[in-house]
Amino acid sequence: MRFDFRYVIKVFPNILSYLPVTLGIAFLSGAIAMLLSVALLALRKIHCRALQAALNFYLDFFRGTPVVVQLFFLYYGLAQLFPVFKNLNGLTAAIIGLSLNASSYMSESMRGAVQSVHPRQVEAGLACGLTQTQVMWHIVFPQAARIAVPTLTNDFIGLIKSSAVAFVLGVRDVMAQTKMLGGSSYRFFECYFVAIIIYFILTKLIHTFQLWLEKKLDVRTRNGGKKCSRSVS
Amino acid sequence: MLQISQLKKSFDSLQVLNGIDLHVKKGEVVSVIGPSGTGKSTLLRCINYLEQPTSGSITIDGLCISPETKSRKRLYEIRRKSSMIFQDHSLFENKTVLENITLPLISAYGYSKSDAEVKAMDILQAIGLADKYNQYPYALSGGQQQRAGIGRALAIEPKVMLFDEPTSALDPSLINEVLELIRSLAEKHMTMLIVTHEMSFARHVSDRVIFMNHGIILEEGTPDQIFTSPRCHETKSFIKSTIQRVNF
Q: Across the interface, which of B76, B89, B139 has its CB nearest the CB of A120?
């Protein structure tokens, strides 16, 4: 069987038309995961052994088991046990599952970034009379954000790739459409070639955005510092 | 101005401060010297409650705080009466020199942005860093960073300034510019408590020198008395060892 480039051109728009579904799952899960991560990070500060044990279990569970198993567990398994999950459609289940999964990675990335801010920065802020919240908001988070960008982007790229698993729950995304076209035309190579190109370009764009953001957040690349509203008199 | 009574601090089983009593008058410059690990830095950190003392009370400008009377409000109030200068890494790395000074003024002291900037520029002029106002800390030399840190501490008009080995992390060639600035503050009668290993500086700038050892104030007196005729054996050998180091 020879590589049929014309077939690639033909199915490309068809498969690409499902990109919004893939993007929707990835960005929505990513946003929910970020919020969950911040919440997890805040809960980490509470001194309660039971709570910390529960958080550790949460992280271990979602990082220690395959995402496809988690999605099946959520969609098929829990529906058997709790009738409330019966009405869950595949797309919602995928978004919930991927959000929970990604949050376990992202919260660890954020924790690492916050920890890597020099402790003296916090002390200096407190010693200047700032409150703990002001120190976090004005000093720690902006510095941690810069450090967290590469790892959080990695997590997000992982999430985009994991979103391809959503097809197992019947979600028609880029992956599902590719599988269907491949199955009906038997031109698997061409179809998956298209899917790979789409995912590759997508993650490459995200990576480019990451580099831009890193540069923007790094004070060392801001020429001579930010402009001040008052000039030197 | 600053009154410390029976201050004790322990980290688990390690007793670091064993009951410190100290009174610093308004406009007085007091240097704290002593071997490493004797609790000098811990003393300063307890004064503005970066470390909570195990017991004892601290009074700055009439406001008293102790572990029993501690509340979040009181904590912020007492911190706003003093300011601390650290060894290093104390300028906010994500803020310009100007923003380093204006942030506390705006966020903690209720200044408007423009008022804070005017005040910050005045201070930067006075400490000779006006041309660096929009630079980030990484672009400054160690000495300039420390001077900017002192500028930030000055801006909040503290009742007492606490210096925690302000020159220990500096290249020897940069130490003088920082010491010079501290000396000029002493001449303006700023109340200061300075932990330092710069013996000749302590001798020339201080009104009083305190020698700490094993978490207590072992000896205190005028610089001349401490450096030329110390009473305690420990003070004597400490002073002697620092002089020997110079003559190495």
A: B89
